[in-house]
Amino acid sequence: MVAVEVVEVIDELKNGYDVVVIGGGAAGLSGALMLTRARRSVVVIDAGNPRNAPASGVHGLLARDGMRPAELVERGRAEVRGYGGQVVSGEVGEVIREETGFRVTLTDGRAVRARRLLLATGLVDELPDVAGLRSRWGRDVLHCPYCHGWEVRDQAIGVLASGPMSVHQALLFRQWSDDITFFSHTMPSPSGEEAEQLAARGIRVVDGEVASLEVVGDRLTGLRLSDGTVVEREALAVAPRMVARTGFLTALGLRPVEHPSGAGEHIPSDATGRTDVPGVWVAGNVTDPAAQVGAAAAAGATAAAHINADLIAEETRQAVAARARGDLAFSAAAESRVCEAVLGDRRHGL
């Protein structure tokens, strides 16, 4: 994993903020940037385990294509701090609702209060249990053709069946290479329309369980089947099961559900990122598993704008109520000022 320096420490947390952002990736930092520019008090709490840490670069992000993930985070943190926001290192253990908002407790026992929450905790990729696969993840074992397809273009690419989207994944990678092999692994061999589609695109199907990856000189060279057969491959695509990082939300009643794609979990929300729990928004992969960095950042900014609007609405209601309660006092004070002015004018002969 890539280590990212954190300047602020957890002891610098104030008691309360307008918004606590949980998760410091593209979605969380983008949301924090929007909110700090709106003059909101914001803290980003980040556990420091970004999903894209193993990748050598971020791709498909306009004007930042190829930038190291750690550098993108460092720049984002600096921008948030530049507008008065805080970024602290820590892992959230529990979130509970209080009368005026939320109490966020970290696993080390420290706590902070927030009027609103933005969850941008991302996902954890659960990979198939194949020897050697995890250590190659983000290098020559990939999942997203739009993120990494260009880097493995024209290579011999394998696609390891691991879920309902695996055939679709093979058809996608066919755009980047005409040498694609589909490994059915522990799943049934494609049949019917799926088999016809693979055949029509020239994608070879290999049945049998994959036991391990063959690596020579820190390069993937093939996949070894359980019967000992080795099929040469230079890259491998896998569709992991994506699991939302949301265990600390149990007390709020906010739980992940299966994504319609069947690829894993997500927290449902509306188009603005608003969840079913009042005061809680989500952005990035935790609600949209397919979102790339650019889309996640955009979702964070969108959620932040709606959080700010929600806070403004609340503050306006409070101001209207306070003004109504203070009308009589206001009138008496105004009358007193008028009397003083009249008496003053008389004393000055006016």
UniProtKB/TrEMBL annotation:
Reactions listed under catalytic activity: [thioredoxin]-dithiol + NADP(+) = [thioredoxin]-disulfide + NADPH + H(+)
Keywords for this protein: Flavoprotein, Oxidoreductase
Domain FAD/NAD(P)-binding: start-end pairs: 17-298
Entries under SUPFAM superfamilies matching the protein: FAD/NAD(P)-binding domain
Source species of the chain: Streptomyces luomodiensis
InterPro entries: FAD/NAD-bd_sf (IPR036188), FAD/NAD-binding_dom (IPR023753), Ferredoxin-NADP_redctase_2 (IPR050097)
Name listed for the protein in its UniProt record: NAD(P)/FAD-dependent oxidoreductase
A Pfam family matched in the record: Pyr_redox_2
